[in-house]
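dumping this here before i forget
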Amino acid sequence: MPLNIDNDYHRFRQIVKGRIRKDLKRFMSNGEMIGRQGKKTVSIPLPQITIPRFRYGKNKGVGQGEGEGQGPGSGPGEAGDQAGEHVIEVDVTYEELAEILGSELELPNIQPRGAKEISSQRDRYVGISKLGPESLRHTRRTFREALKRQIASGSYDPGRPRIVPVKEDKRYRSWKAQTEPQSAAVIVYMMDVSGSMGREQKEIVRLEAFWIDTWLRNQYKNVETRFIIHDAVAKEVDRHTFFHTRESGGTLISSAYKLCMQIIEADYPPSEWNIYPFHFSDGDNWSSSDTKLCMELLKTQLIPVANQFCYGQVDSEYGSGQFIKDLEQNFKDEEFVRLSRIPDREGIMGSIQDFLGKGY
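structure:
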């Protein structure tokens, strides 16, 4: 890529990042971009960024300028007196998105607690060899050896410098595979899906989970995600079912905490894994006796094995909102319990800060 084009591209990426930072709260409360997820990037619609393009000048040559011709809103139809909005989609990597999120919300990097060592094979160049494939030939070392040979033999002419490597001059990068330890984390999402948790409440949880995933995947090399839904009974489900299921009936929050512990005990030893349980609800629970059981399960089982336990209460016109009050009363001084009230989509940014702002 020519230098000037490379500089232009870098400048354009900085403009894109600046626009995302400026509108981050809007992006966090809008589900449009989540529908454009790829494996490594997410497409973000950005209005009013002018893309440089060629246009023909009056001399019929090619020049640079704003350009003329059809754009968004052109073509058949009624004339209007308002300017059209130019919208483009820009692919942004999850790493870039996490960088913007961390910068704007001032999130500290996480210090892993678990010491899971996942075997990650990585090739490292460790030296120079006289044998190897041509794809690994070290050009500079090869020509250095050829120059030394020609000088030693007296065949090198400084007036007409010409270096011709022969077979014995060739040098190759040597490599070997090394196993590197990588920290690992598991996120366990739990959500109340009883009748009082409507479509909008689930959408808020879906949006918040996207940004939680984005940040934690940037902090850990390996992240696994598990999903639990509950009303009066808890069950593990896949991601799609988690965000789209709606049940009816009562709510027993303890059923979710019990299942969460079963999953951790079966698959994620706390000495090896960094564990992040996130629970979302509208604050209703079936009885005070079950709430008491929840507090006991948290104190004796879930909090001791987790990096931190996070509870997000999504406002609902049908929910009492009592459960977060019970948590505040029981864990007021608990460092590794993070609580957040989420009144609506506009509250997602503040909730992410509540959950991730301590760097645990």
